[in-house]
Amino acid sequence: MKTDAVGCKQFGFTLLELLVVMVIIGLLAGYVGPKYFAQIGKSETKTAKAQIEALSRALDTYRLDTGHYPATEQGLAALNRQPNGEAKWQGPYLAKGVPADPWGRPYLYRYPGEHGDYDVWTFGSDGAAGGQDADADVGSW
Questions:
Q1: What is the pTM of this model?
Q2: What are φ and ψ of residue 37, in 5° steps?
Protein backbone atom coordinates (compact mmCIF):
# COMPACT_ATOMS: atom_id res chain seq x y z
CA MET A 1 0.00 0.00 0.00
CA LYS A 2 1.33 3.39 -0.96
CA THR A 3 0.30 6.92 -0.20
CA ASP A 4 0.32 9.77 -2.69
CA ALA A 5 1.40 13.40 -2.07
CA VAL A 6 -2.00 14.27 -0.59
CA GLY A 7 -1.92 11.35 1.84
CA CYS A 8 -4.54 9.17 0.09
CA LYS A 9 -3.90 5.46 0.21
CA GLN A 10 -3.42 3.70 -3.14
CA PHE A 11 -4.04 -0.03 -3.58
CA GLY A 12 -2.64 -2.11 -6.42
CA PHE A 13 0.21 -4.25 -7.66
CA THR A 14 3.51 -3.20 -9.16
CA LEU A 15 4.58 -4.40 -12.57
CA LEU A 16 7.23 -6.60 -10.97
CA GLU A 17 4.65 -8.33 -8.77
CA LEU A 18 2.44 -9.01 -11.79
CA LEU A 19 5.37 -10.44 -13.76
CA VAL A 20 6.28 -12.80 -10.90
CA VAL A 21 2.69 -14.09 -10.72
CA MET A 22 2.61 -14.59 -14.52
CA VAL A 23 5.85 -16.62 -14.40
CA ILE A 24 4.48 -18.81 -11.60
CA ILE A 25 1.24 -19.43 -13.56
CA GLY A 26 3.29 -20.29 -16.66
CA LEU A 27 5.41 -22.79 -14.73
CA LEU A 28 2.33 -24.45 -13.27
CA ALA A 29 0.66 -24.68 -16.69
CA GLY A 30 3.83 -26.19 -18.16
CA TYR A 31 3.84 -28.86 -15.48
CA VAL A 32 0.12 -29.67 -15.25
CA GLY A 33 -0.83 -29.32 -18.94
CA PRO A 34 1.02 -32.37 -20.32
CA LYS A 35 -0.21 -34.56 -17.46
CA TYR A 36 -3.79 -33.43 -18.07
CA PHE A 37 -3.69 -34.13 -21.82
CA ALA A 38 -2.13 -37.56 -21.24
CA GLN A 39 -5.19 -38.46 -19.15
CA ILE A 40 -7.51 -37.58 -22.04
CA GLY A 41 -5.97 -40.32 -24.20
CA LYS A 42 -6.38 -42.83 -21.38
CA SER A 43 -10.03 -41.95 -20.90
CA GLU A 44 -10.77 -42.47 -24.61
CA THR A 45 -9.18 -45.92 -24.44
CA LYS A 46 -11.25 -46.76 -21.35
CA THR A 47 -14.38 -45.57 -23.15
CA ALA A 48 -13.56 -47.80 -26.13
CA LYS A 49 -13.10 -50.81 -23.83
CA ALA A 50 -16.44 -50.15 -22.12
CA GLN A 51 -18.24 -49.76 -25.46
CA ILE A 52 -16.71 -52.97 -26.80
CA GLU A 53 -17.88 -54.80 -23.66
CA ALA A 54 -21.42 -53.47 -24.22
CA LEU A 55 -21.29 -54.55 -27.89
CA SER A 56 -20.08 -57.99 -26.78
CA ARG A 57 -23.01 -58.37 -24.38
CA ALA A 58 -25.43 -57.36 -27.15
CA LEU A 59 -23.82 -59.86 -29.55
CA ASP A 60 -24.14 -62.62 -26.96
CA THR A 61 -27.83 -61.79 -26.48
CA TYR A 62 -28.28 -61.82 -30.27
CA ARG A 63 -26.72 -65.30 -30.32
CA LEU A 64 -29.01 -66.55 -27.55
CA ASP A 65 -32.05 -65.41 -29.55
CA THR A 66 -30.99 -66.52 -33.03
CA GLY A 67 -28.57 -69.37 -32.36
CA HIS A 68 -25.63 -67.66 -34.10
CA TYR A 69 -23.72 -64.38 -34.25
CA PRO A 70 -24.36 -61.94 -37.11
CA ALA A 71 -22.29 -62.56 -40.23
CA THR A 72 -19.40 -60.22 -40.96
CA GLU A 73 -21.38 -58.81 -43.89
CA GLN A 74 -24.32 -57.97 -41.60
CA GLY A 75 -21.99 -56.35 -39.13
CA LEU A 76 -22.95 -54.68 -35.90
CA ALA A 77 -25.95 -53.08 -37.63
CA ALA A 78 -27.74 -56.43 -37.10
CA LEU A 79 -27.96 -55.51 -33.43
CA ASN A 80 -30.45 -52.74 -34.21
CA ARG A 81 -32.04 -53.71 -37.54
CA GLN A 82 -33.47 -57.13 -38.18
CA PRO A 83 -31.47 -58.88 -40.91
CA ASN A 84 -33.43 -60.31 -43.84
CA GLY A 85 -34.57 -63.85 -43.17
CA GLU A 86 -33.78 -63.76 -39.44
CA ALA A 87 -37.12 -64.83 -37.95
CA LYS A 88 -35.82 -65.35 -34.39
CA TRP A 89 -34.41 -61.80 -34.09
CA GLN A 90 -35.86 -60.08 -31.00
CA GLY A 91 -33.92 -56.80 -30.97
CA PRO A 92 -32.97 -54.10 -30.98
CA TYR A 93 -30.18 -55.20 -28.71
CA LEU A 94 -28.75 -51.73 -28.10
CA ALA A 95 -30.95 -48.95 -26.73
CA LYS A 96 -29.17 -46.10 -28.52
CA GLY A 97 -27.83 -47.82 -31.61
CA VAL A 98 -24.27 -48.84 -32.41
CA PRO A 99 -21.92 -46.12 -31.14
CA ALA A 100 -18.91 -44.80 -33.00
CA ASP A 101 -15.58 -45.30 -31.27
CA PRO A 102 -14.28 -42.38 -29.15
CA TRP A 103 -12.36 -41.11 -32.19
CA GLY A 104 -15.47 -40.93 -34.38
CA ARG A 105 -14.92 -44.08 -36.47
CA PRO A 106 -17.15 -47.16 -36.62
CA TYR A 107 -16.14 -50.26 -34.69
CA LEU A 108 -14.88 -53.15 -36.77
CA TYR A 109 -16.53 -56.57 -36.56
CA ARG A 110 -15.57 -60.02 -37.84
CA TYR A 111 -17.34 -63.37 -37.49
CA PRO A 112 -15.87 -65.89 -37.10
CA GLY A 113 -13.15 -64.09 -35.21
CA GLU A 114 -9.43 -64.71 -35.15
CA HIS A 115 -9.22 -64.16 -31.36
CA GLY A 116 -12.53 -65.68 -30.25
CA ASP A 117 -16.02 -66.49 -31.54
CA TYR A 118 -16.11 -62.96 -32.97
CA ASP A 119 -13.85 -59.92 -32.97
CA VAL A 120 -14.92 -56.34 -32.25
CA TRP A 121 -12.15 -53.76 -32.34
CA THR A 122 -10.99 -50.25 -33.11
CA PHE A 123 -7.56 -49.07 -34.21
CA GLY A 124 -7.20 -46.35 -31.55
CA SER A 125 -6.58 -42.67 -32.03
CA ASP A 126 -4.27 -43.03 -35.06
CA GLY A 127 -6.74 -45.18 -37.03
CA ALA A 128 -4.00 -47.63 -38.03
CA ALA A 129 -3.23 -51.16 -36.84
CA GLY A 130 -0.80 -51.43 -33.94
CA GLY A 131 0.49 -48.52 -31.94
CA GLN A 132 1.10 -47.74 -28.29
CA ASP A 133 -0.77 -45.86 -25.57
CA ALA A 134 -3.70 -43.91 -27.12
CA ASP A 135 -2.73 -45.21 -30.60
CA ALA A 136 -2.99 -48.85 -29.50
CA ASP A 137 -5.73 -51.08 -30.89
CA VAL A 138 -8.58 -51.89 -28.50
CA GLY A 139 -10.35 -55.21 -29.05
CA SER A 140 -12.76 -57.69 -27.54
CA TRP A 141 -9.95 -60.16 -26.99
A1: 0.69
A2: -70, -25
